[in-house]
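Crash report, auto-generated. Payload:
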Amino acid sequence: METQPVIVIKDLYKTFGENEVLKGINLSVNKGENLVILGRSGSGKSVTIKCLVGLVKADKGEIKIFDEEVSALNDDDLNNMRVNIGFMFQNGALYDSMSVRQNLKFALKHHTRNLAEPEIESKIMEALENVGLAESIDKMPSELSGGMKKRIALARAIIIKPKIILYDEPTSGLDTITSREISELILSVQEKYKASSIIITHDMACAKTTGNRILILNEGEITAEGSYEELEKSKDEWVHSFFI
Amino acid sequence: MTVYIKNIFEEAGDMTQFTLRFFKELLKPVFQWREFSRQCFAVGYKTLPLITITGFIMGLVLTIQSRPTLLKFGAESWLPSMVSLSLIREIAPVITALICAGKIASGIGAELGSMKVTEQIDAMEVSAVNPYKYLVVTRILATTLMVPLLVIYADFVGIYGGYIGYNIHGNMTLFRYFSDVLEHLEFLDLFPAIIKTFFFGFFIGLIGCYKGFNASNGTASVGIAANEAVVAASLSIFIIDMLAVQLTDLFF
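Recovered output after restart:
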């Protein structure tokens, strides 16, 4: 893993009404690194990664992706930057009026124009094979189980071969076995594509399997940082409570 | 009360911004032709059976209800022209638009609301697709184009319904009935009536998209978005109709 940072966040603040969600977040992700952000519900984990891709506008602070300040980008430049980022949403966020094939095709066609149909088809098959769901290509999202939806969402995120992948609660709502499969899948995808990732989770098994480094977020502030093993040994009661 | 008035002004401001953004995005390349044609099909073709039934019943009922009054004045022969003028100038545009408000505005409100709640709109944005251009522009244009076509279709079906209604107690050929209708129709009967339907279509699409796009999180908001879309779109149809009648009266 290289120590060249691809994502840098400095003093990030975000407030919704009177609720201060982020209170000066500082973090960086190196090239090829999997950074896990742990925290309880409502601690500001999802808001942090939504600020990264411009879905939520931060009140204050600096977000740099590949040395480009996100808040300074216009719509076109922001879209050009997003071409390098894959995002796996908490509930998959598959387009429910489209089949699996169309879901993947939609993401691909809008990211990379001028691709011939056979090339598109082979990329779709490759992404589906990577998540082990090639046989579901013509299914509708309503015909898929929770775990399958997450896998397809992952396939949609990786089909564009992104340099950064953001995972928002990839294992939430899944049984233990499927959660483990998804965590292993994240790891294999990271190894294959050499992408840098931020994984938002409160699933400790997922954090252990996927994370090179872990940050713990509490009420909008980072309270601990380190590897799984380091944090597991922490004397801090709050940090320790995650490992019980 | 103050909060209520403040909310109305805030919503009016948001709606104006939403409308201005529509025109801004409309002029930007690339236009989503495929999604636009899909929406035209959904709005136009899938509403056709409903419009056929209501259009036919409108003409039939209007003829049957008007006949006794006209008979009293010995003006039964005016029935085809009176029914067709009523249909073309007022009844068909308003009733068709109200049906579209019920079916299309609520459909768009619920669809976009559900996409918002399930983060599909966010997913689109992250995929470097402008969701406003892809979802909103195409839907508003589709309703603006399809509602006038549906109204023209409802005019024809309604007049045919009138012909059937006339022949329950009378005896007239279809050719003579339509000749009678066309003989009394003027350009000014058609032109303002058609023009206002473009506005009906525009506002049906605009309100449906606005309510759906601004649905708050939670599944209950999808139902609220659909419901508010129908109410606001129906109200806007009556307001546009009133303004159109006043303007027509003023200029023609």
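Post-recovery validation: Residues 116 and 180 of chain A are 36 Å apart (CA to CA).
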